[in-house]
Amino acid sequence: MSVLVSARAVCKSFPVGRSRWRRRSVRVLNDINIEVRAGEMVAIVGPSGSGKSTLLYCLSGSEAFDSGSVRVAERELHGAAPDTIFEIRRDHITFVFQSHNLIPSLSASENVALPARLAGHPLSRKQVNEALERVGLAQRARARIDTLSGGERQRVAVARALASDAQIVFADEPTASLDSHNASNVLHLLRAVPTDPARSVVMVTHNLEAAALADRVVLLRDGSVAGELARPTAQEILEWMEASR
Ligand SMILES: Nc1ncnc2c1ncn2[C@@H]1O[C@H](COP(=O)(O)OP(=O)(O)O)[C@@H](O)[C@H]1O
Ligand SMILES: [Mg+2]
């Protein structure tokens, strides 16, 4: 099985404090090793502040890291030129951000269509409508983002990611603002992505039922990988998180 994302010894710190003389920094990711193979869904769980979002940003080329290596589709991100990182992201990655990253003044369908248009291979109107239909938002296609609820915005962000045929879907808490019906629908849509053996999903979640849909669950604690479980139940994840505290 081919490896789509491979992180080796990834470390990242953020500067803290404002003093010019005493530069302090806090280590947020500590010697992270992770592999994501084509055809699998990997969930990343861990307490708030454990570095899950930061890790997803580093794995997807959205944020730089201090040391180590991240290879996406066999291309190295560390030290790569911005143009190269842009290309790797454009060619292989789509992202459902925690903050949704939608353009408020554009409509739902314009937001879904935008990344593919910028990448130079626009979607048809039918593809855009289908993506919105899959998240139950066909009726809201023409609504401006700033008139939608938080949950509807999250579903537009999911539709935008699913409309792309990127090999790797990164999703940061993709069901956080959804009611249980929509959460379950979104999770099943994400779960369906790696039925294509060339694609994979990496999802951060605090919902253990959601994590239990993954092929592997990685536990992050204080910026380090504390362990990994293959195809666990939600109960097993819970017990394991408590035991490793
Ligand atoms: N841009 C930033 N500057 C400084 N500290 C940050 C920044 N982003 C995140 N952090 C810190 O890094 C740690 C991990 O954050 P994050 O990756 O968002 O955790 P999680 O997603 O697991 O809740 C937290 O302590 C957070 O305060
Ligand atoms: Mg987070």
The helix-strand sequence is EEEHEEHEHHHEHEHEEH
Gross geometry:
globular
Strand order within the widest beta sheet: 6-7-8-3-9-10
- Which band does the percent of strand residues land in? 25-35%
Number of helices: 8
Instruction: Provide the list of bound ligands, each named once.
Output: adenosine-5'-diphosphate, magnesium ion
Largest sheet: 6 strands, mixed
- What separation lies between the terminal Cα atoms? 33 Å
Low-confidence stretches: none
Beta strands, count: 10
Class derived from helix and strand content: alpha/beta
CATH topology: Rossmann fold
User: Approximately how much helix is present in the residues?
Assistant: 25-40%
Count of the separate structural domains: 1
Examine the secondary-structure arrangement and name the CATH architecture: 3-Layer(aba) Sandwich
Please tell me how large the radius of gyration is.
18 Å
CATH class: Alpha Beta
The fourth-level CATH homologous superfamily is P-loop containing nucleotide triphosphate hydrolases
Mean pLDDT: 94
